[in-house]
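Hi everyone, sorry if this is the wrong subforum. Our group has a chain we'd like a structural model of before ordering constructs, and none of us has done structure prediction before. Sequence below.
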Amino acid sequence: MPKVDPCLLSIDLGTTACKVTLFGLDGSRLAGCQTGYPLYSPEPGAAEQEPDDWRSAFHQALISLSNAVPQLMLAVTGIGLAAQMNAIVLVDNQFQPLGRAQSSMDQRSVPYNAHLRSQFAAQLPEIYFGRNGMLGRIAWLGDQLAQQFASR
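Answer:
Right subforum, don't worry. Here is the predicted structure as C-alpha cells:
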C-alpha cells in the first residue's frame, strides 16, 4: 500500500446532517460524506430532534467515508468536532435522553427571552438576552417540566 500523508478528520453534527470530512494538513479537502436526520415540529415554533438520530447519522457517515477512502482513514492524525449550538438534551442519571432534543431553532421560548430582556437587560448588560437565548430556553423548559410533573 502506498504511503499516505497524514490528514485530519472533521466531524460536524449540524442542524440537518452529520458531516465527516478529511482534510490534508495544508487545509485541502480530501474527501467527505454526510448523513441527514429529520427535524420534528410537533407544534408551532417547535424544532426537535432525536439524539439517537445524531449517533446513527455519525456512525453511517463515518462508515461511508471509511468505505470510500480506507487508506486515508488510516492516516488520520487529528480529529476536530463541532456540534449544534445551544441544542438542549435532557438526560436521566444514566445519561440517557429523556426525549427529543430542543434544537437551537426552536422558537417556543421567545416570549420568555423577551420577558427576561425587559426585566433584566438594563441591570445586567454583560448577559446576552437574545431573541432565542439560552436563559429563556431553560426557563421555558422549567415551566414545561413543572407542568409535566404536576400532571402525574
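For your construct planning: The chain has a mean pLDDT of 91. Residues 51-68 form the longest helix (18 residues).
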